[in-house]
Design goal:
136 residues, 5-stranded mixed sheet, alpha+beta, 3 helices
Length: 136
Protein backbone atom coordinates (compact mmCIF):
# COMPACT_ATOMS: atom_id res chain seq x y z
CA UNK A 1 0.00 0.00 0.00
CA UNK A 2 1.23 3.51 -0.74
CA UNK A 3 2.47 5.15 2.49
CA UNK A 4 3.83 8.54 1.38
CA UNK A 5 4.67 10.62 -1.65
CA UNK A 6 6.53 13.64 -3.07
CA UNK A 7 5.67 15.88 -6.00
CA UNK A 8 7.33 18.66 -8.00
CA UNK A 9 6.34 20.99 -10.79
CA UNK A 10 9.54 21.31 -12.84
CA UNK A 11 10.33 23.58 -15.77
CA UNK A 12 13.54 22.98 -17.71
CA UNK A 13 14.69 25.59 -20.22
CA UNK A 14 17.65 26.09 -22.50
CA UNK A 15 17.52 29.90 -22.51
CA UNK A 16 14.65 31.24 -20.39
CA UNK A 17 15.92 32.38 -16.99
CA UNK A 18 14.14 31.04 -13.86
CA UNK A 19 13.03 34.57 -12.90
CA UNK A 20 11.14 34.82 -16.20
CA UNK A 21 9.53 31.42 -15.58
CA UNK A 22 8.36 32.66 -12.16
CA UNK A 23 6.86 35.74 -13.78
CA UNK A 24 4.91 33.73 -16.36
CA UNK A 25 3.63 31.16 -13.85
CA UNK A 26 3.01 33.68 -11.03
CA UNK A 27 4.76 31.26 -8.65
CA UNK A 28 7.89 31.33 -6.50
CA UNK A 29 10.04 28.22 -6.91
CA UNK A 30 11.49 26.27 -4.00
CA UNK A 31 14.63 25.56 -6.03
CA UNK A 32 16.42 26.90 -9.10
CA UNK A 33 19.53 25.72 -10.91
CA UNK A 34 21.18 27.97 -13.45
CA UNK A 35 22.59 26.92 -16.81
CA UNK A 36 26.39 27.00 -16.78
CA UNK A 37 26.77 26.29 -13.06
CA UNK A 38 28.53 23.21 -11.73
CA UNK A 39 26.32 20.35 -10.53
CA UNK A 40 27.29 18.09 -7.58
CA UNK A 41 28.53 15.56 -10.12
CA UNK A 42 31.02 18.11 -11.43
CA UNK A 43 29.23 18.48 -14.76
CA UNK A 44 28.29 21.88 -16.12
CA UNK A 45 24.52 22.30 -16.27
CA UNK A 46 23.24 22.61 -19.83
CA UNK A 47 19.79 23.91 -18.83
CA UNK A 48 18.07 26.15 -16.31
CA UNK A 49 15.84 24.24 -13.87
CA UNK A 50 12.93 25.84 -12.03
CA UNK A 51 11.17 23.66 -9.44
CA UNK A 52 8.25 23.95 -7.03
CA UNK A 53 8.59 21.03 -4.62
CA UNK A 54 6.41 19.34 -2.04
CA UNK A 55 8.52 17.19 0.25
CA UNK A 56 7.43 13.78 1.47
CA UNK A 57 3.94 13.67 2.98
CA UNK A 58 2.66 10.55 4.74
CA UNK A 59 -0.84 9.21 4.28
CA UNK A 60 -3.31 10.00 7.05
CA UNK A 61 -6.18 8.08 8.56
CA UNK A 62 -8.55 10.19 6.46
CA UNK A 63 -6.51 9.95 3.24
CA UNK A 64 -4.89 6.65 2.32
CA UNK A 65 -4.74 7.35 -1.43
CA UNK A 66 -1.05 8.30 -1.59
CA UNK A 67 -1.98 11.56 -3.29
CA UNK A 68 -1.37 14.08 -0.47
CA UNK A 69 1.83 15.50 -1.98
CA UNK A 70 0.33 15.73 -5.47
CA UNK A 71 -2.79 17.44 -4.08
CA UNK A 72 -0.63 19.90 -2.09
CA UNK A 73 1.46 20.67 -5.20
CA UNK A 74 -1.65 21.36 -7.27
CA UNK A 75 -3.02 23.65 -4.55
CA UNK A 76 0.29 25.60 -4.49
CA UNK A 77 0.29 25.70 -8.30
CA UNK A 78 -3.21 27.17 -8.55
CA UNK A 79 -1.96 30.62 -9.77
CA UNK A 80 -0.25 28.89 -12.72
CA UNK A 81 -3.41 27.19 -14.04
CA UNK A 82 -3.81 28.30 -17.65
CA UNK A 83 -0.37 29.96 -17.72
CA UNK A 84 1.90 27.02 -18.64
CA UNK A 85 1.05 27.48 -22.33
CA UNK A 86 2.45 31.03 -22.05
CA UNK A 87 5.95 29.74 -21.30
CA UNK A 88 8.49 30.30 -24.09
CA UNK A 89 9.09 27.46 -26.57
CA UNK A 90 12.39 26.44 -24.94
CA UNK A 91 10.57 25.53 -21.70
CA UNK A 92 9.45 22.01 -20.85
CA UNK A 93 7.06 21.79 -17.85
CA UNK A 94 5.95 18.62 -16.11
CA UNK A 95 5.03 17.16 -12.74
CA UNK A 96 7.28 14.53 -11.17
CA UNK A 97 5.35 12.47 -8.60
CA UNK A 98 6.81 9.59 -6.60
CA UNK A 99 5.29 7.40 -3.93
CA UNK A 100 6.64 4.89 -1.41
CA UNK A 101 4.94 1.54 -0.89
CA UNK A 102 5.27 -0.70 2.15
CA UNK A 103 4.87 -3.79 -0.03
CA UNK A 104 6.12 -5.28 -3.27
CA UNK A 105 2.95 -4.11 -4.99
CA UNK A 106 2.83 -0.52 -6.13
CA UNK A 107 -0.48 0.45 -7.62
CA UNK A 108 -1.84 3.91 -6.95
CA UNK A 109 -5.11 5.79 -7.27
CA UNK A 110 -5.64 9.08 -9.14
CA UNK A 111 -8.99 10.68 -8.27
CA UNK A 112 -10.91 12.47 -11.01
CA UNK A 113 -10.63 15.85 -9.24
CA UNK A 114 -6.82 15.63 -9.34
CA UNK A 115 -6.83 14.54 -12.98
CA UNK A 116 -8.98 17.58 -13.78
CA UNK A 117 -6.57 19.91 -11.94
CA UNK A 118 -3.58 18.40 -13.75
CA UNK A 119 -5.39 18.99 -17.03
CA UNK A 120 -6.19 22.58 -16.05
CA UNK A 121 -2.52 23.17 -15.21
CA UNK A 122 -1.62 21.79 -18.64
CA UNK A 123 1.28 19.47 -17.86
CA UNK A 124 2.11 15.80 -18.14
CA UNK A 125 2.77 13.74 -15.00
CA UNK A 126 5.70 11.36 -14.66
CA UNK A 127 4.99 8.98 -11.77
CA UNK A 128 7.08 6.35 -10.00
CA UNK A 129 6.29 3.99 -7.14
CA UNK A 130 9.20 2.83 -4.97
CA UNK A 131 8.50 -0.66 -3.67
CA UNK A 132 9.57 -2.33 -0.44
CA UNK A 133 11.95 -5.18 -1.23
CA UNK A 134 10.05 -7.48 1.12
CA UNK A 135 11.50 -10.29 3.17
CA UNK A 136 14.32 -12.17 1.47
Amino acid sequence: MIQSGRASLVVVSTDTEPVAISAVLALTPTRVEHKGTVARSGRIRENHVWSLDVDSLDDTGADQTGTRALRALLMRSDPAFGRVTNLPQDCDARIWWSMDSDSTQGGFFLPVDLAEKISALGVDVYATVYLDEGAA
